[in-house]
Design brief:
By secondary structure, the chain is α/β, with parallel strands linked by helices. It is about 20% helix and about 25% strand. The chain has one domain: Rossmann fold (3-Layer(aba) Sandwich). It contains 3 helices and 5 strands. A 5-stranded mixed β-sheet has the order 2-5-4-1-3.
């Protein structure tokens, strides 16, 4: 099992490898996210402002890490999901992000 932190609600699955998977999604609280992420995780947060904001919110270092990942059955992720769209091409600062409504969502990929 691998634990990821993502800055979208997209579930990256390698469909060259798996024809079908099931995914469980659950909205979680900030406290639940802190508890889940107290163990080792891989950040796939590709935007510096989001990584900085998540680091402050969670009280842990969430590095900016613009990588491609594919979740496997058994993997879980904590997703930071903005509840509104921002303008195309707009890169938000940590301060701008902090003013927008968001959810934290836990996903689990099942085989």
């Amino acid at each position: 099992m691998v634990l990821y932190v993502l800055n979208s609600l997209i579930i990256p699955v390698n469909f060259d490898k798996y024809e079908k998977v099931q995914v469980k999604l659950k909205k979680i609280s900030l406290e639940e996210a802190k508890e889940i992420l107290k163990n080792q995780f891989i950040s796939a947060v590709g935007h510096e402002g989001t990584a900085r904001m998540l680091s402050e919110l969670l009280g842990i270092e969430v590095p900016t890490n613009r990588i491609t990942i594919f979740m496997e059955p058994g993997d879980i992720a904590v997703h930071f999901f903005l509840k509104e769209r921002v303008a195309e091409g707009k890169i938000l600062s940590k301060e701008e992000l902090a003013r927008l409504p968001y959810w934290l969502v836990l996903s689990e990929v099942e085989g």
